[in-house]
Design brief:
Layout (H helix, E strand, L loop, with lengths): L3 H7 L5 E4 L2 E4 L2 E7 L3 H13 L4 E7 L1 H9 L6 E3 L4 H8 L9 E6 L1 E5 L20 E4 L5 H12 L10 E4 L2 H9 L5 E5 H4 E2 L2 E2 L3 E4 L8 E7 L7 H11 L1 H9 L8
Parallel strand pairs: 3-4, 3-5, 8-9, 8-10
Antiparallel strand pairs: 1-2, 5-14, 6-14, 7-10, 7-13, 11-12
Helix pairs in contact: 1-2
Length: about 260
Amino acid sequence: MNNPFKKAFYGASLILLFSNSNVVVAESLTIASASNFAETVAALVQEFEAKSDYEVRLILGSSGRFYSQISNGAPFDIFLSADREKPAALVTNGLALPQSRFTYATGRLALWSEDENLISGDSSVLSTDEYKKIALANPRLAPYGKAAMEVLTALSLSDDLRDKLVQGENIAQTYQFVSTGNAKLGFVASSQVIKNGALTSGSAWLVPEDLHLPIHQDAVILAKSKENSAAHAFMDFLKASEGRRIIQSYGYGLQDL
């Protein structure tokens, strides 16, 4: 079976085509994507490359880290953030194209454990002594971590659980903490643990959206890539019906365009 994540992550950034001793360079792009979107963007890249002549290099990490790198000249073409604020700030600072920014997905937060009996579909486990550590992404760097802290505050548990919190740099590392048992439960992106409407393993609570600010995820083309046709083509693909179908299939919400 093809592995779209491996293909997207390790895909070459360009292909050299040799014909009659002439070298033709296929245009390429580099995408910096929030790690919560890893599997989804990998599937998007696979489909995009299959239907175009462009090549994509995909880099995953925390939105906060990418924002800092872009501000310092990192060679990315597209930034898929896990929030709205960072792409908006890049536009304000002249580092991204204003007309390119749009919300490509809306995320959901889940409290998850590999123990199928630990979470009973609500927040009650948080008030018990059945766990020693709870993982969340760094709230200063990752929007899903910020949302997790908003949930704990809304439930009046942020002070009580302070000594149990374990922070991952991003939501991918947070998921790893829970999946490996280093933390018995944690706040992750629902797309990491729910596929086609079903929980992949363990037990979970899909956090009500009224307990935290909406997780609107915005995409933007960086200003230096204004003339990169591959970047514009990929953004068009994200907005097209096929791209939106893929995004929705991984559990994300969509906004009207």
